[in-house]
Amino acid sequence: MSKNNVVELAGREKIRDELTELIREGACKLIAQGLELEVGELLSRMSERQGELGRAAVVRNGYQPERDIQTGIGPVTVKVPKIRSRDGKPVSFHSALVPPYVRKTASLEAALPWLYLKGISTGEMQPALEVLLGSQAKGLSASTVSRLKQTWRVEYESWQHRRLDKDRWVYIWADGIYSGLRAESQKLCALVIVGVNERGEKHFLAIEDGVRESTQSWREVLLSLKARGMNTPELAVGDGAMGFWAALDEVYPASRQQRCWMHKMGNVLNAMPKSIQPKAKSALQQIWQAATREDADRVFDQFVVTYEAKYPKATNGLLKDRESLMTFYDFPAVHWQHLRTTNPIESTFATIRHRTTRMKGCVTRDSMLHMMFKLGECAEKNWRKLRGFKYLAKVIEGVKFVNGEEIEQPNQVAA
User: Fold this and answer.
1) Residue 241 and residue 170 share a domain
2) I need a labelling partner for 191 at 20 to 30 A (CA). Which of 19, 97, 209, 345 fits?
3) What are the tens digits of pLDDT across the range 57-89?
4) Is residue 320 part of a domain?
5) In terms of DSSP H, where are the helices of 198-311?
6) C-beta separation of 160 from 225 below 8 A
7) CA-CA distance, 28 to 38, in Å (whole number)?
8) 73 and 33 in one domain?
9) Radius of gyration of the chain, Cα coordinates, nearest whole angstrom
10) How sure is the predictor about 359, in pLDDT bands with cuts at 50, 70 and 90?
């Protein structure tokens, strides 16, 4: 059988690419931080020249009026700091980042990913900024770039240790994200967990370096979340090939498990000839799209009978996770579209996978994590609440659902 029998899953290919909005926000924040570092360095240099005066002759003086840099992805708003001399003499601050005029460049949209994907790797910030702002961006000092990356490192480390016990986390999604970037000879992977709280708000809970198939790696991630106060989630969603599940059984044994249907379909179909895949894919979709678990079981059995003799590897892969593939039927139907896949993670990091696939340069593991954290931080701001979030309270209360519908308890009927 050919090793190239890889099915193209429509659900993944149509993931919404939020790169434009994410990078506009990221570029705005990056420029603001860069301006602050620039003016800080200027004041520091001028202060060193004051000799025995004992006080700085040049000080901060607010900001120039906000203005927009017209870019290929729309306007990016900036505020340039101002400085003044204590003796009244005019002092000009000429920013290398934001010159008086920046022309619109057609190459901007294609080059901006470097700000996150290559920009934080050693020695790549300057070329990225030059593409963003033109040749006038030359002159940004190495120390400014280093301090900017240090700021991101501090933000990431602070985020890693924040408390999680202020919210009740109902569902979590877990996945191991291979970035496409490499450190030495190894492909870099981040272990990512997203959670939804009782108000339906989705947040990144963990972005850690690790090995996707390693139980120990996932155990460390989950133990860290528990130490920071995360409660036992009602349901965890993820790919069955990860070491996550053994770790979940140890750290949160009461959490129920749902295998991701997109991952499972990919694995099953890749064990079948390419000519068979379209028909088999349609049959698999009928399972998880069935209105009731009974209907899903019937289609499931039919799939196994149809393909078991010729493609036992494909059907065995499906059978071993049968129960955990059907768990979503015990939760509100309005949540099913969120619980059947790891899409909350896939959709956010699809951009990283796409933009880093062809990169040959190496980055450190820390740089990769900081980059993913910054991209994820921007993505969170655009996430909508979980559809049907009002049902989360019922899930927390232990209300039973059968085939997505709430089952009335005897005391409810009596009331």
Assistant:
1) yes
2) 19
3) 778 888 888 877 655 455 677 888 888 887 766
4) yes
5) 215-227, 244-251, 261-270, 277-288, 293-307
6) no
7) 15
8) yes
9) 26
10) very low
Per DSSP, the three-state class of 210 is coil
Residue corresponding to tokens 């490192």: 153
Compute the distance between CA of residue 57 and CA of residue 52 in angstroms, rounded to an integer. Answer: 12
Q: Are residues 317 and 407 in the same domain?
A: yes
Same domain, 114 and 237: no
Q: Tell me how many helices (H) and strands (E) the chain has.
A: 18, 11
How many folded domains does the chain comprise?
A: 3
Same domain, 114 and 78: yes
Burial of 227 from C-beta contacts in 10 A (0-12 / 13-18 / 19+): exposed
Q: Which of 102, 132, 158 is the last residue of a domain?
A: 158
Per the CB < 8 A criterion, the answer to whether 38 and 310 are in contact is no
Q: How far apart are CA 343 and CA 341, in angstroms?
A: 5
118 and 181, same structural domain?
A: no
Q: Distance between CA 179 and CA 413 in Å, rounded?
A: 53
Is the torsion defined by CA of 323, 328, 331, 332 positive or negative? negative
- Looking at this protein, which amino acid is placed at residue 311? Y
What's the domain range around 271?
263-338+397-415
How many Cβ atoms sit within 10 Å of the Cβ of residue 204?
A: 20
Tens digit of each residue's pLDDT (9 = 90 or more) over 301-354: 999 999 999 999 999 999 999 999 999 999 999 999 999 999 888 877 765 555
Q: Are residues 26 and 130 in the same domain?
A: yes
Residues 24 and 152 in one domain: yes
pLDDT at 14 over 70: no
- Residue located via tokens 């892969």: 317
